[in-house]
Design a protein that fits this description.
- The complex is a heterodimer of chains A (518) and B (239).
- By secondary structure, chain A is an alpha+beta fold.
- Chain A has eleven helices and twelve strands.
- In chain A, the strands form three sheets. A five-stranded antiparallel β-sheet of chain A has the order 2-1-5-4-3, with helices on both faces. Chain A has a five-stranded mixed β-sheet with strand order 7-9-10-12-11. A two-stranded antiparallel sheet of chain A has the order 6-8.
- In chain A, a hairpin with a 2-residue loop joins strand 9 and strand 10.
- In chain A, helix 8 crosses helix 11.
- The radius of gyration of chain A is 42 Å and the shape is elongated.
- Chain B is α/β, with parallel strands linked by helices and 239 residues long.
- At the A-B interface, helix 8, strand 6, helix 9 and helix 10 of A face helix 6 and helix 8 of B.
Chain lengths: 518, 239
């Protein structure tokens, strides 16, 4: 700012010299025709022009220059500064007074225009910050966005430190890493008032520190490094910065409220799920248990009254129902492991074929009615996955496909590389997933209502956990899972496995360096 | 020709599980000796000299892996460990400590009988040191003496490393081998963590030997544990 002003002044004097000089020179050419009063008028015009366009200094300078030029070149005796006629004294005085008045007027106009422009800049900065903050999703983003906008508005480095879980400020980076600034920032957080450069508290901190928050809660501190807060426009500048800090405070408050609301919503949801879990569990676990107990008691007490065929049927009931229970319990345990964060992912580089092959063999009985086509390109890179978990994903997706489609319809498993990820697809030829259900199918205890009535078959059993577990496992691998309509009808469940690092290489001669066991 | 019934020592703390093993194994001609604790089991091992041990990994009085080590210190009796899914690390530790095979609970009777048969076959006295020179598994025939491999009567040409891996699996046909055991046998002690070598070569072998490499039946994956060359058809896949 000061630099600008000095430069503008220098330019003003140059312009004044040029303007007055040019008019004087032009008049000199017509000295014979012009009356001295005409010349005086023209020079006065030049002074007015200069005064209107620059500050008071150049205006006065221009009037003095004009007086000198007039006296020197147009008032006889020419080329001396001597004045014979007292009348010209009035002309000189008028020129000077006009310059002073004009200069004053312009200065006021300029100051007002400057104030308007500054206000506009502040408003624009405020508006831009408001718009940017509307898109911020986390407190850290709010801090980042605010710091960037304040930096732009103040022209000096700025940072925002946020109140952490412990109640004290956390992070923020420079200048919060300076002990004096940190001390002042802690004071600001406690008192909710500004401190640092240009204020009564910690004026030596080397930064202006403003509270970020609302009257109800203080969320952090905005630091603007020295340069701002000092100088002539300090007060208005600080007000502008305070407005920006206030805006950030509102954004943080909004996020805090949203978080609280989300937590409350989740608590309600969790409660609803617990109720659903209980009813689902009691039904899903009791059904097979009833079968097992019934068949078991018949075998235990009525064995001699039963025919061999009946005995065999009862025994098979026990076997089938136990297997159903095993699957249910396994799913429930997986779910609990996922939810409690106890799911450990033991990654190993391997071909995708491996977990898929295990899943296909494990499901052989249940997939008897569905031909499964496997289309894995031979050059598919190795993936770094937990084989047991990925096997579970394949088992659940294949089981799901078999459950919701007509017997005899094919299932196709394919995979391809897409940029920095492998996309795996399990596609069926069933009724597909309704558009509005695409997200819901991955939800806990969800059993697709639109999917089980194809050809009037009864609703398939299951706790509605299979796809939720898939999502948990895929997410734990850094991937994403979704469902979309399959080309040619049916549902296509797709998931990605990011290729975070290059697969390790395999040296074909590695074994040959090691002597074979005798 | 009446061979004496093979003696199976069952070390398992769950009474229901013991009852299932006792009744079903007796029905299939085994002589069953029971123990509910590790201590009892070790005493029975010394006293009854069983042909095979079924060892639960979740005993109340001792760590199953330690028990495996204690048995191995004095006996060569085949050990089959019993454990739940999700305890793959324990299974691997037990196998690396000298156990011969494992069964994941819950398991069916057919699976149990197949494992017992395989364990007893390998322990047949007289065959002790000399490995069988020809191993057959389904339509696969591996002639370990001549280093030749045949699939449905036709010779298959394998790369040296592929053959070496197949030979190790064939020498232990029917038995699970952990990743570590296979890596050590084929690539040496410097490669114990390089499981991708093993997986890549198993994949190559499957593409050369399996009828449907997407559903490998000869070289079976034991998830999280290792591989097994199946020398008899697997029992029907459970429901």
């Amino acid at each position: 700012m000061t630099m600008d002003r000095r430069e503008a002044g220098w330019r003003g004097y140059a312009a004044a010299t040029a303007t007055v000089g040019a008019v004087a020179f032009a008049c000199l050419q017509f000295r014979a025709t012009f009356a001295p009063i005409d010349v005086a008028m023209l020079l006065l015009l030049a002074v007015v022009v200069v005064a209107a366009r620059s500050a008071r200094g150049p205006a006065v300078y221009a009037s003095l220059l004009a007086i000198l030029a007039f006296d020197f070149a147009f008032v006889p005796p020419y080329y001396t500064l001597a004045v014979h006629e007292g009348a010209y004294v009035v002309t000189f005085a008028t020129m000077l007074i006009v310059a002073l008045i004009m200069g004053g007027l312009t200065a006021r106009l300029r100051a007002e225009a400057g104030a308007v422009a500054a206000r506009e800049r502040r408003l624009a900065a405020l508006y831009e910050l408001g718009r940017a903050l509307a898109g911020a999703r986390t407190p850290a983003e709010v801090a980042e966005v605010t710091a960037r906008h304040v930096e732009r508005a103040a022209g000096t480095p700025a940072a925002v430190a946020l109140r952490g879980a412990a109640g004290a400020l956390e992070g923020g980076g420079p200048p919060f890493d300076r002990p004096r600034v940190a001390e002042a920032a802690a004071w600001v957080l406690d008192h909710g008032e500004a401190a640092g450069t240009g204020t009564a508290e910690f004026p030596d901190a080397g930064a202006l520190l403003l509270p970020v928050g609302t009257p109800l809660a203080r969320h952090g501190v905005l630091a603007i490094t020295a340069g701002a807060g000092a100088g002539a426009g300090a007060a208005t500048e600080r007000r502008g910065l305070e407005l920006l800090a206030g805006q950030a405070g509102l954004a943080l408050e909004r996020l805090a409220l949203a978080r609280k609301e989300e937590a409350a919503r989740l608590a309600v949801e969790a409660e609803r799920l617990r109720t659903a879990l209980l009813s689902s569990l009691s039904h899903d676990l009791r059904t097979p248990l009833a079968g097992i107990e019934g068949a078991g008691t018949a075998l235990a007490s009525d064995a001699e009254r039963l025919t061999p065929v009946e005995r065999r049927e009862l025994a098979e009931t026990v076997v089938e129902e136990s297997r159903r229970m095993t699957r249910l319990v396994a799913n429930l345990l997986d779910m609990i492991r996922l939810e409690s964060g106890a799911l450990a992912v033991h990654r190993n580089w391997q071909p995708l074929e491996e977990p898929l092959g295990v899943a296909l063999l494990r499901l052989e009985g249940r997939l008897a009615d569905h031909p499964v086509e496997v289309a894995l390109p031979p050059d598919l890179p190795l993936v770094s996955v937990d084989e047991l978990l990925l096997e579970q994903v394949f088992v659940n997706l294949l089981e799901n496909a078999a459950k919701y489609t007509r017997p005899g319809t094919p299932i196709r498993v394919s995979a391809w590389r897409d940029g920095a990820a492998i996309v795996v697809e399990v596609a069926d030829r069933g009724p597909g997933v309704a558009a509005g259900e695409a997200d819901a199918v991955f939800r806990k205890f969800h059993r697709a209502p639109g999917r089980h009535v194809e050809d009037g078959r009864p609703a398939p059993g299951g706790a509605g956990l299979g796809l939720t577990i898939c999502r948990g496992i895929v997410t734990a691998h850094g991937g994403r899972i979704w469902v979309e309509p399959a080309a040619g009808g049916g549902a296509a469940f797709r998931f990605t496995l990011p290729l975070e690092a290059a697969p390790p290489s395999v040296d074909p001669d590695a074994a040959l360096a090691f002597p074979e066991a005798p | 020709m009446t061979t004496p019934a093979p003696v199976v020592l069952v070390v398992e703390d769950e009474p229901a599980m013991r009852r299932f093993l006792r009744t079903s194994l007796r029905a299939h001609g085994y002589h069953v000796v029971e123990a509910a604790t590790a201590r009892e089991g070790l005493a029975q091992l010394a006293g009854r000299n069983p042909d095979v041990v079924l060892l639960d990994l979740g005993l109340p009085d001792a760590d199953g892996i330690d028990v495996t080590r204690q048995v191995r210190a004095t006996h060569r009796t085949p050990i089959i460990v019993l454990s739940a899914r999700g305890q793959e690390r324990d299974k691997v530790a037990a196998l690396d400590a000298g156990a011969d095979d494992y069964l994941t609970k819950p398991f069916g009777l057919q699976e149990l009988l197949a494992r017992l048969r395989a364990a007893l076959r390998r322990a047949v006295p007289g065959r002790g040191g000399a490995e069988p020179s020809v191993v057959t598994a389904g339509e696969l025939r591996v002639d370990l003496g001549r280093r030749q491999v045949f699939r449905a009567g036709e010779e298959v040409h394998l790369a040296p490393t592929e053959y070496r891996l197949l030979a190790v699996l064939a020498a232990h046909a029917g038995q699970v081998l952990t990743h570590r055991q296979l890596l050590e046998a084929v690539w040496g002690p410097n490669f114990l963590e390089q499981t991708h070598y093993l997986r890549v070569y198993v994949g190559q072998l499957r593409h050369k030997l399996e009828r449907d490499p997407a559903r490998p039946r000869l070289i079976a994956t034991e998830p999280g544990v290792g591989y097994r060359l199946r020398d008899e058809a697997p029992p029907a896949a459970g429901g």
